[in-house]
Amino acid sequence: MHAVAADGRDDAALLRAHLDGDQEAFGALVRRHQDRLWALALRTMGDREEAADALQDAMLSAYRAAERFRGDSAVTTWLHRIVVNACLDRIRRRQVRPTVPLAETDQHAAPAPDRDTALVVHDALRQLPPDQRVALVLVDLQGYSVADAAQVLGTAEGTIKSRCARGRARLAVLLGHLRNPTSGHNVGPVKGKEGAAHD
Amino acid sequence: MTERVDLDRLADFVGGALDGTPDADAVRDLIAGDAAWESAYADLVTADAAVRLDLAEYAAQDTRMPDDVADRLASVLRSPGSSSEKATARETRDTRRPASRTDATRPGASRRRARLYAGLSAVTAVALVAFGLLVGLPRVARDGIKSNSDTAGAPAPGGQAEAAVDTPQQISGRDYRRGDFGTLGNDANAPGAAAARSSERGGPNALGGAAEQPGFAGSTPPELQRLLTPTARAACIQAIQAIHGGIVRLVDYARFEGRPALVALLDGTRDGGAGSWVVVVGPDCGQPTGNADERYSGPIA
């Protein structure tokens, strides 16, 4: 399924080679999937620098945890899971950690979308609870099936469906497709509510 | 009697999350018999389709990994134990420039460089522990803080080095709060005293001993049982060090703001520099994905 032009070995073979001491193998594996992993990190974090840091954390974790890969899922699923968890770790830390502004911080803009819609969607996604955001990123943006997303996130398919459905409903409000149902509906304000658990 | 429209429940129905459950029939009945639900359902179906279109447009954006990010990642993976792995985006600021030149010519570079050098990489730390070179690391099994010296250096199942499990541990039963970790520092600095308190008042104790907080009943919370195993604990410590660097001086099976948590005290982290740094992780720390399940990190005081 994946291009193997640069390295004829499949993902599992590259991982085995890494464990056997091939110093190029893990880098080759990452290069093969780097665009999708980057997209996952960027869309989950919503911030270019945070995404780069999360991806670096994730790939270092994968590098070191390779021997614990049990082979009960595709290597790419395993890598996606590690990236998701690294992103969620960072989001949790951001929520609980005292913010210490760095004087030299220079905020790069997160992606440079070509159209207004993309920018608006990007901002709206950042306001979703992380669990819903991750599910939507995997299913609606990365094209994962519900079953595959459930495997990546280690949860039930019904939970993925629920997170996606509720996430879309919140997005509908944020994007102006649905009247804010503050009187009577249970959606609640989502701005600034990142991290609220729903299930 | 009408029932207030619950958008989450309605969304679950629209998204198929209720399929095959009794609640799907209940929601269907509400839509059929309640004008408010019927209207909300129609609105949500229309809005859902619009959101999907927006998401599809957003998904079509170019998200290829930028060259600077790819270069940085490749560099880190070429030497994962080197200081280059600590060059996070926030520290290097402009990742399009080589970190060495950037840091050397910008204000604050020496501070950052000191922080980078202060943090031993996880790999280096693990290796040092494995070879017993960490002078001064308390090994006080008889003093109330358990040190797994019996497993140090022995290969773990799956080939994972168990060096990290040599870290002193305790079950304090405390419920830590952010900004209130001073007692952890005391335990690490004076393990004998901790043991004395433990024996007298059921306070901090070695693994398997009594604990003073209700609900612990003298044992680790069930949620943390997995982390009692040397392999799981080593994986967790590695995950913590992968993020923060440094050396773990003590781990405490405890709680953080009411929830079961492993509280680690580290020295030489990237964030804490020469000071002690606390990292609080949850029960999933070090799961096969190698992530930390982190709940909090900050200075000890």
Automatic annotation (TrEMBL), chain A:
GO biological process terms, semicolon-separated: DNA-templated transcription initiation
Superkingdom assignment: Bacteria
Occurrences of domain RNA polymerase sigma factor 70 region 4 type (ranges): 121-171
UniProt keyword list: DNA-binding, Sigma factor, Transcription, Transcription regulation
UniProt domain RNA polymerase sigma-70 region: residue ranges: 29-95
Spans through the membrane: none
Pfam family, one: Sigma70_r2
UniProt-recorded Gene Ontology molecular function terms: DNA binding; sigma factor activity
PANTHER family per UniProt: ECF RNA POLYMERASE SIGMA FACTOR SIGM, RNA POLYMERASE ECF-TYPE SIGMA FACTO
Assigned protein family: Belongs to the sigma-70 factor family. ECF subfamily.
Protein name (database record): RNA polymerase sigma factor SigM
Native organism: Virgisporangium aliadipatigenens
TrEMBL record, chain B:
Keywords for this protein: Membrane, Transmembrane, Transmembrane helix
Region annotation (Disordered) ranges: 76-111, 148-221
Domain of life of the source: Bacteria
Record-annotated membrane-spanning stretches: 116-137
Protein name: Uncharacterized protein
Bias type Low complexity, positions: 152-164, 185-204
Protein source organism: Virgisporangium aliadipatigenens
Biased composition (Basic and acidic residues): 87-97
